[in-house]
Amino acid sequence: LRGSKSFTAALPGETERNGHGLGYKSVSVGHLEAPPLSPSRLSLGRASSTATSTAAPEQGRPRDYLVLAIFSCFCPVWPLNIVGLVFSIMSRNSGQQGDTDGARRLGRMARLLSIVSIVLGTVIIVLYISLSVR
């Protein structure tokens, strides 16, 4: 047996008499009448970072660590330092578009990748020099 998706409810407005003196209106589930939502209840999803950044006090432009990322490109860990450079550029673009949360997050990732690249590059250079001197 398959149930119906419509029901009868006592709603004010356009009603018809059912013979008992009570007004009822037959409606479908998808067509329930509801009052308009207030602007604060329109979206229940996560607010965009641009909306949340306007409520927070301005702390200045987030850092993108572009100089550090460019410096890390001289280390011999090329896939890692190029990704750090890309994150740094993405951080700069996000900051220019006003997305401070995204710019901070991308800037931290660029800093992390650049530092790891510099450390690994230094280790590779030291190992290469120490092994070639023997």
Polypeptide structure, described:
Residues 47-56 have a biased composition (Low complexity). This is TUSC5 protein. InterPro entries: CD225/Dispanin, CD225/Dispanin_fam. There is one protein chain. The protein is mainly alpha-helical and 134 residues long. It has helices at 49-55, 66-72, 78-96, 100-133, and strands spanning 6-9, 16-17, 23-28. The chain has a three-stranded antiparallel sheet with strand order 1-3-2, with no helix packed on it. Helix 2 packs antiparallel against helix 3 and helix 3 (78-96) packs antiparallel against helix 4. The model is unreliable at 38-57 (pLDDT under 50).
Task: Label this structure with key terms.
single chain; 134 residues; 4 helices; transmembrane helix; membrane
Write the H/E string, N to C. Answer: EEEHHHH
**Order of strands, widest sheet:** 1-3-2
Rough outline: elongated
Oligomer: single chain
Radius of gyration: 30 Å
Task: Report the major sheet.
Answer: 3 strands, antiparallel
Helix percentage: 40-55%
| End-to-end gap | 86 Å
Rounded mean pLDDT is: 76
Uncertain parts: 38-57
Number of beta strands: 3
Q: Count every helix, treating DSSP H or I runs of 4 or more residues as helices.
A: 4
Q: What structural class results from the helix and strand content? A: mainly alpha
**Beta-strand residue fraction:** 5-15%
Protein name: TUSC5 protein
Keywords: Membrane, Transmembrane, Transmembrane helix
Main location: membrane
Biased composition (Low complexity): 47-56
